[in-house]
Predict the 3D structure of the following.
Amino acid sequence: MGIVIGVVGPHDLVDDVAATCEEQPGVSALRLDYDHESQAPAIVEAHAASVEGWLFTGIVPYMLTRDAEMLSRPAAFVDYTGATLLSALVRLQHEGHDVTTLSIDTLSPADVTSTFAEAGLPTDRLRTLGYRSEMTSGKAIAFHRRGPARVAITCLSSVHEALRGEMHVLRLAPSVHSVRVALRQLLLTAEGQAQEDAQIALGLIEVDGEEGLLREATALGGTLAGFRGGTHLLVTTRGPLSDATRGFTGLPMLGRLAEQSRMVRVGFGLGRSAAEAESLARRALARARRIGDVAAVLSLRADTDIVLESVATAPAGEQNLSVLARRVGLSVPTLERLLEARDAAGGEPLTTREIAERLAVQQRTARRMLHRLELAGLAERTGNLTSGSSGRPLTLYRLML
């Protein structure tokens, strides 16, 4: 089974980086280019469901996307220090430029100094502007315009476009070696997360009533079934359970179920097979019974048991947006806007056109989102509404986030 990597960067770099990625067997690349690095977070949000990992052509689009909290998949960026910077210095020297009086943006001063030291070059007349979260292309342009240096090295296409008529400016491009290094790092991270997140998590639940139980299972990205003696079996995987319990520290669903039932006992087991997970879940439930009427325990291998505290939280759908986002392939901000649309409508059904307008997307995009929510049990069709034109009728959906 292959892996799809989303390659994000300026239009003149994406194809080359993607082609290098696709040299790796089993890897296919989704080419996603932008005109300005500030567009990277929106691109990632729009295509989050289509990839298993992200490779950015440089640190700036990566950091902008990370700071916008849009990275729900493993991600890496191509590093421009080392061989990439050295090759740029050689090129400038061949062109007759003094490489000891450069202004360099984005790269960290420590990395620049290290690279120059390896090349035996002095650094006392260099000017560097390392990347920081508040750095913008405008600030980088102003940095290069200040000072005596008339040769600039930039990692940003927007800076290159702004300065190339004023001074000699060289834009760094990722080397094949740097792309391969970044891709190996990304594939290792993606494989490790996939293996860990896919670890089976079984929950055995004893509860007086079933109200809200199915909703809680859905919020955990799992399925619910009857077990023995009135006990319920919840099947999910480690990733959603870890997200919902904030790293196995608390179980919000325990408090919510306890509001409806006098007795709620939950035992979760994590295992590499269904049999191992079930055995651990039985152990966890037995300990939960010893604790009291409202208790939850997670049992791991090596005789490790974790008592999951009940914590006061928002309703299940609102609390576990990160889990739901992973399950349905939409971003958390998109789900938040859907919640706002639901609340603005007072819980009444909405047409696909209304949802598209509220989310500022095309109707076909809204239909795709709603289809995913419907498959996850988080939206239901309640009928059709004639649009008043010759077009297709508008489907009404009730959102159940």
